[in-house]
């Protein structure tokens, strides 16, 4: 099961409404994995692979820009790795942050 699907399942079971692949920034192609109100969520897959795309200089720069633009546009943002989703940490953080 894809990590995003796993997190979606956890959110469904918890009764938390969300949108997937949300395009939050007008004029930009960036899509965020989930939106819950004013909270954007990114699941960082492939972090533990030999050559993960997010650790290249261009990947890190792109991720920084994506997070910065979200914050500059008034969103809160949470980033999670696969182990955070699988352990339930991501869901606990979402429950804690979503209504703040």
Structure explained in plain terms:
- The chain is α+β, with helices and mostly antiparallel strands and 100 residues long.
- The chain has one domain (3-97): VSR Endonuclease (Endonuclease, Chain A).
- Helices cover 43% and strands 21% of the residues.
- The protein is built from four helices and four strands, in the order H-E-E-E-H-E-H-H.
- Strands 1-2-3-4 form a four-stranded mixed β-sheet, sandwiched between helices.
- A hairpin with a 2-residue loop joins strand 2 and strand 3 (39-44).
- The mean pLDDT is 89.
Please provide a brief summary of the model:
The chain has 100 residues and is α+β, with helices and mostly antiparallel strands.
What tags apply to this protein structure?
43% helix, Endonuclease, Chain A, 100 residues, alpha+beta, 21% strand, single chain, globular
Question: How are the elements arranged and paired?
Answer:
Elements: H1 3-14, E1 19-22, E2 32-36, E3 39-44, H2 57-72, E4 76-81, H3 82-87, H4 89-97
Parallel strand pairs: 3-4
Antiparallel strand pairs: 1-2, 2-3
Total domain units? 1
Separation of termini? 30 Å
Q: Shape from CA axes? A: globular
CATH homology superfamily: VSR Endonuclease
- CATH class categorisation: Alpha Beta
What class would the helix/strand composition place it in? alpha+beta
Q: What order do the strands of the largest sheet run in, or round the barrel if closed?
A: 1-2-3-4
Number of helical segments?
4
Structure summary, number of beta strands:
4
